[in-house]
């Protein structure tokens, strides 16, 4: 793994998506996202060198609030919602604090690579408050209602149209303040702590090993019983977020292996983007974008100063693309909610409405 090369004393990032884990005091953790939390326990684990993006816990991590929730069969007493209500969602979840080369980070793991999905991230620590965008949580006083405690976990996907990114935090993350790995499908080898596609029907990996640099994205589809093979990779890992002149290295192939495809076109569906590009039929612009942060210090990211008085606004950064446009603040994040996986609904508001949580709902 590569070393962190970015200033590690600034913002903590946040982005929200789908499927929660067990939640400490109603905080809602979402797949493909980073969590907004207020942390109140300060033991940490120290080590030097590379960030180990291998979905593993280090000794002592379970002492950090909320600690381990369902990973390796363990669980912390803090893995609850509301005033101690048991969450029906059993998605493994972990949050701890770690010191690397003298800098502190929150370490978060959601899911289990052996079960087909896992996400791991490290973001810089900034006191008790993670200035990440979205509605901030407030754990004090202890008997406050669940919506106040939940922060952006109350309605994380913004199903209520009155709740935009200022409430949910969606799209307001600073990508230069995180290292992140997310895997889907594939095969996990627990002995070697490695993940690979391994010939599975589908697998993908999002890997961002350095804060200052962009990610590498891979996706493979093996259509059973081997009638089609699709292999995609966009490597932007050597491109910084202030460079829009350099395109990523791309591999995009499609191979049709259908023996019944009529002659004389048995390979009519085959496609290799490298060959196509060399012939001048395509131009690669993937990776040619920049990100400009709106603030460089957590205390300056909230334009109204007091984030708990109900009158606040998070100052999000912006992207600029050489070709096309994509504004994450305009995405409809609820499309990532799978009702089959989350029958109760996303967020703690749905748990209150369903009666799972009583006594702490507004």
Describe the structure.
By secondary structure, this protein is mainly beta. It is 6% helix and 24% strand. The strands form 3 sheets. Strands 1, 2, 3, 4, 5, 6, 9, 10, 11, 12 and 13 form an 11-stranded mixed sheet that branches. A two-stranded antiparallel ribbon has the order 7-8. It has a two-stranded antiparallel ribbon with strand order 14-15. The longest helix is centred in the last third of the chain and has 7 residues. The N terminus is likely disordered.
How would you sum up this structure in a few lines?
This protein has 362 residues and is mainly beta. It is built from 4 helices and 15 strands.
Helix count, per DSSP? Answer: 4
Helix content: under 10%
Which percent band covers the strand fraction?
Answer: 15-25%
Could you say which structural class the secondary elements and strand pairing correspond to? Answer: mainly beta
Poorly predicted tracts of residues = 1-48
General form: globular
Q: Termini separation (Å)?
A: 46 Å
How many beta-strand elements?
Answer: 15
What is the residue-averaged pLDDT? 76
Main sheet record: 11 strands, mixed
Rg over CA atoms, rounded to whole Å, is 21 Å
């Amino acid at each position: 793994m590569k070393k962190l090369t970015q200033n590690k004393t600034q913002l903590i990032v946040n982005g929200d998506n789908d499927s929660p884990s067990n939640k400490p005091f109603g905080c809602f953790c979402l797949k493909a996202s980073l969590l907004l939390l207020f942390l109140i326990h300060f033991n940490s684990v120290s080590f030097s060198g590379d960030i180990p993006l291998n979905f593993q816990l280090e000794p002592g991590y379970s002492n950090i609030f909320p600690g381990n929730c369902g990973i390796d069969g363990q669980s912390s007493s803090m893995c609850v919602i509301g005033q101690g209500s048991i969450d029906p969602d059993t998605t493994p979840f972990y949050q701890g604090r770690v010191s690397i080369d003298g800098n502190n980070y929150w370490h978060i793991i959601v899911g289990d690579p052996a079960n087909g999905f896992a996400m791991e991230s490290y973001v810089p620590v900034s006191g008790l408050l993670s200035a990440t965008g979205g509605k901030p949580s407030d754990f004090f006083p202890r008997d406050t209602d669940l919506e106040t405690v939940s922060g952006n976990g109350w309605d994380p996907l913004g199903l209520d149209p009155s709740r935009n990114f200022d409430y949910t935090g969606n799209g307001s993350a600073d990508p230069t303040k995180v290292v992140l790995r997310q895997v889907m499908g594939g095969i996990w080898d627990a002995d070697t702590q490695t993940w690979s596609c391994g010939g599975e029907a589908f697998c993908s990996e999002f890997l961002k090993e350095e804060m200052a640099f962009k990610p590498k994205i891979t996706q493979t589809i093996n259509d059973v019983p081997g009638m089609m093979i699709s292999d995609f990779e966009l490597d932007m890992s050597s491109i910084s977020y202030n460079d829009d002149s350099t395109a990523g290295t791309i591999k995009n192939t499609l191979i049709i292996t259908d023996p019944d495809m009529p002659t004389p076109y048995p390979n009519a569906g085959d496609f290799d983007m490298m060959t196509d590009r060399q012939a001048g039929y395509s131009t690669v612009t993937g990776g040619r974008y920049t990100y400009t942060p709106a603030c460089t210090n957590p205390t300056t990211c909230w334009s109204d100063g007091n984030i708990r008085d109900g009158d606040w606004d998070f100052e999000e950064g912006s992207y600029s693309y050489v070709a096309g446009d994509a504004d994450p603040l305009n995405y409809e994040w609820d499309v990532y909610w799978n009702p089959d996986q989350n029958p109760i609904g996303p967020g703690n508001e749905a748990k209150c409405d369903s009666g799972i949580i009583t006594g702490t709902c507004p």
